[in-house]
């Protein structure tokens, strides 16, 4: 697949839903990840990202307007040793807990399915970055219904070893807007990754649909040292 501009990819889709980008900076020195959420309902839009230790969590911007926390309040990012876990739901905790018990990323996700939000059956998308003393690889996963049939769960894992400088992969929940929302199809899209954390954060935030975007998290991790820098942007602040 040809590497595309993440700006064009985002601008061309008014509702990708939630999205994960993982890759390597152009100079090869940084492991890069980003996660964004969007919303169409007041309940979905009433959220912010906040730092929580080495990870982040979502919380209600206005607690009085929170109607159903079940699928919108979770920890999208957690860190387990030299692994950074990024997901669009509470499967972050499943991956963290089972990998802590020596199970693999895939084994952990075998215990989960797509979200029970009929008729959309939103896919669960997940990623993991493994950074260790100059070595870096990552994997991405999607759990989705079989073309809207909830009796069948389709599971796909994509592993990227020796990640190429300047390249990342982008996976998201929806092909675009619709009722019901159509699930993402195909493999993660190869996208360009720059060197500058702030420039990349601005590019992503400004490319997301103005009405639907809610929050964005971006992290650069030094591949040699494991030290990281994080940016969080919230529409509600």
| Amino- and carboxy-terminal Cα gap | 38 Å
Characterize the main sheet: 6 strands, antiparallel
- The assigned CATH architecture is 4-Layer Sandwich
Structural class: mainly beta
Q: Any idea of the CATH class? A: Alpha Beta
Chain-wise SSE layout:
Elements: H1 6-11, E1 19-24, E2 30-38, H2 42-45, E3 47-52, E4 55-60, E5 77-80, E6 83-87, H3 91-99, H4 105-109, E7 124-132, E8 135-146, E9 149-160, E10 167-172, E11 189-192, H5 197-207, E12 213-222, E13 228-234
Antiparallel strand pairs: 1-2, 1-10, 2-12, 3-4, 5-6, 6-7, 7-8, 8-9, 10-11, 12-13
Which labels suit this protein?
Glutamine Phosphoribosylpyrophosphate, subunit 1, domain 1; globular; six-stranded antiparallel sheet; 5 helices; mainly beta; 237 residues
Give a description of the structure.
The chain is 15% helix and 41% strand. The model has no long low-confidence stretch (mean pLDDT 96). The protein is built from five helices and 13 strands. It is globular and about 45 Å long. It has a single domain (6-234), classed as 4-Layer Sandwich (Glutamine Phosphoribosylpyrophosphate, subunit 1, domain 1). By secondary structure, it is mainly beta. The protein has a six-stranded antiparallel sheet, covered by helices on one side. The chain has helices at 6-11, 42-45, 91-99, 105-109, 197-207, and strands at 19-24, 30-38, 47-52, 55-60, 77-80, 83-87, 124-132, 135-146, 149-160, 167-172, 189-192, 213-222, 228-234.
């Amino acid at each position: 697949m040809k590497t595309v501009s993440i700006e064009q990819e985002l601008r061309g889709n008014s509702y990708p839903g939630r999205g994960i980008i993982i890759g390597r900076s152009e100079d090869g020195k940084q492991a890069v990840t980003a996660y964004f959420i969007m919303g169409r309902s007041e309940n979905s839009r009433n959220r912010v990202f906040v730092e929580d230790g080495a990870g982040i969590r979502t919380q209600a911007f206005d607690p009085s307007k929170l109607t159903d926390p079940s699928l919108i309040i979770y920890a999208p990012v957690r860190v387990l040793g030299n692994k950074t876990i990024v997901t669009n739901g509470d499967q972050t905790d499943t991956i963290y807990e089972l990998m802590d018990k020596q199970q693999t990323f895939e084994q952990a996700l075998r215990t989960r399915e797509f979200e029970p939000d009929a008729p959309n059956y939103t896919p669960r998308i997940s990623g993991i970055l493994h950074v260790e003393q100059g070595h870096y690889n990552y994997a991405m996963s999607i759990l989705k219904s079989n073309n809207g049939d909830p009796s069948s769960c389709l599971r796909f894992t994509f592993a990227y070893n020796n990640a190429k400088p300047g390249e990342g992969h982008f996976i998201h929940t929806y092909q675009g807007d619709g009722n019901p929302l159509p699930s993402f199809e195909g493999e993660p899209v190869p996208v360009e990754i720059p060197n500058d954390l702030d420039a990349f954060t601005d590019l992503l935030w400004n490319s997301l649909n103005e009405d639907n975007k809610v929050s964005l998290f971006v992290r650069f991790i030094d591949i040699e040292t494991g030290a990281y820098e994080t940016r969080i942007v919230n529409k509600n602040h």
